[in-house]
Amino acid sequence: MKTVSVCFVCLGNICRSPTAEGVMRRLVGEAKLAERILVDSAGTGDWHIGQPPDERAQRAASRRGYELAALRGRQIAAADFERFDLLIAMDDKNVAALRQACPAEQRDKIRMLMEFVPEADGRWGGAREVADPYFGGAEGFEQVLDQCEAACHGLIAVLRPQLLA
Ligand code: 4NP
């Protein structure tokens, strides 16, 4: 059975990437692909290792039925570049940090989340990045969720035919 493993990556692993992980887990379950698409998340920084997701991220997610409370922050490690098929970053800084830590032969695994939003979805005007909501207001966390939902639908649409081929 073909499988694919995906690690979402942001700076702290307490706002954006755990949100993407929670959204992806639910959509993968709904698509009956939970045994084929393995999902995790990590941060490039070390400030929030062992911490649960930011309360604001948890609250916003739980209003849409996503449960993030059991997740814990961790930092990306050398083994992750071997272990995962895709390392999906939220912004250009995350990509730069991943590229620095990544062996050259694994660099193609590094992608941006917003690449997977279908082109027809014009809500964010072609934005390349999922903006960091940490220092902003509640609306930032809603936008992160909207972007994660759109991109994770798109990601599943890309992966499904590869897994079932
Ligand atoms: P995240 O958000 O990268 O989406 O988890 C942040 C969390 C913490 C910090 C920055 C961004 N921080 O500076 O501590």
TrEMBL record:
Active site: C10 (nucleophile), R16, D132 (proton donor)
Protein keywords: Hydrolase, Protein phosphatase
TM regions (residue ranges): none
Keyword Transcription: no
Top-rank taxon: Bacteria
UniProt feature coiled coil, ranges: none
SUPFAM superfamilies, sorted: Phosphotyrosine protein phosphatases I (SSF52788)
Domain Phosphotyrosine protein phosphatase I span(s) in chain numbering: 4-158
Keyword Ribonucleoprotein: no
Pfam families hit by this protein: LMWPc
UniProt GO MF annotations: protein tyrosine phosphatase activity
Family to which the UniProt record says this protein belongs: Belongs to the low molecular weight phosphotyrosine protein phosphatase family.
Name under which the protein is recorded: protein-tyrosine-phosphatase
Source species: Paraburkholderia phytofirmans OLGA172
